[in-house]
Amino acid sequence: MMSHSMPGRDLSLGPLLLLWPVLALLLYLCAPALPAQADTPGTLKKDLANILSDPELKAAHVGVVVDSLTTGQRIFGYNAEKRFVPASNMKLFTTAAALLVLSPDFRWETRLLMDGPVISGTLHGDIIVEGSGDPTISGYFHDGDVLHVFRQWADKLKERGVRQIAGDLVIDNSAFTGRPYGTGWDMDTTSCFGAPRDAFTFNNNCIQLDITPPARAGEETLFAMEPATDYVRLVRDITSRKDAGVDTVNLEYTTQRTLSVTGSIGPGNRMITRYVAVNHPACFGGFVFRETLEATGITVEGDILCARNCPKTVDVRARREKGAWKIVSVYHSPRLAEIIKVVNKLSNNLYAELLLLATGRAAGATGTGGSAAAALAVLRRAGVDTSSVIMVDGSGLSRHDLVTPDSVARLLTIMAEGPHSRCFIDSLPIMSVDGTLGVRLKGSRAAERIRAKTGTMTHIRGLSGYLTTMKGERLAFSIFSNNHVTTPAVDAATDRIILRLLDYSSPER
Q: What is the DSSP annotation of 433-471?
């Protein structure tokens, strides 16, 4: 007879099978905790190499360096010694040298002078604005009031009884030599992105142009400038379409002060804002200063004259030697510690250029080339190997600038360990919080754990700075891509590298 079942066996296994998931959970919870496995350079190298193997990056020139500030070890390098065009990562070298030469407490000084007697409200002489390269005569540090400094100067003149200036308004912009545009700048000269350099700078040497489309077809398009000035004359040829569509606005200077605005806009669309660089920036600042004086009741009978780079120039030294000059007012910029935040967080090119020139001037150098050489000499003395660095300007606008990921990482390490570390690090954008990284990796665990400088031009991308891992290790990193076509792919790879680094932990720790 065949047996159809084994009752004893069934009774013994059934309850155990039912209870097994519970027993397994208890065993897991009661087991002693195993120490977390430390990351290894080999593991990291494999993971980062996998990221860099993206087919979109195959034809690009890519370099990466990651150093641990905690252990002092290099934990990853890829094309570390190869040269790259850095774009705005060059600002790291500019601000580091400025801090070492000028100190965080440095302030620019711009003086207003006058000569001659004041008789019955008339100044029988000239006024001179003595420029020193200060980029902060604008609304940025003055609650948006573009004319703040000029109004203060007007008040100081009134306190001396001046209601009319019989002489000239002279802008002494002789502190810097050289051309207003840098070598290798490839850009639209109407763009505020590459505003011309000058020792007397006002409002970033730009105007803000607001174009408000009509509410309905057939109505007038409205134009507004800030500052409201007659220095720039607008020639408007904007077509108002019947449909909302895509707006197009084209800007072109037909003369040094005549701006042609063409294109088409649809009714009911949002206001369009363009930031437009001016020509002859010292004259622009003097022109708006004269308009401000006239608005407060002080007339200027003479011309606007400059030492250089203006339609009308004058030998300022000779003019100064013949007069008995009195200081009317002195404007002091904010501290350098605050100014470099504009350079690095907002990536302001003009600020960076003027900062490099100020660094060179303090070191006894002249011109952009001399200033760049002086800045690199300062960094070499601090321990940075600059043998692979070619510095043509302070902003990174020039495609002639060259750095290596290694040189950038070494700079970051030295600045992190130096006397101005807090000031330097605080000047960098915070991931997902502010500046040029304000919206990047928003909502991810990278938020607030990274401070880094961006660099962006056509076919150029860079990100270099500091990262704190999830376990508290501090890293310095530099990531570059040149000659790529697909920028989103480069950004995606960079973000993947950053997110991977967050989980790193040195085996030595």
A: TSGGGTTTTTTSTTTTSEEEEEEEETTEEEEEEEEE-TT
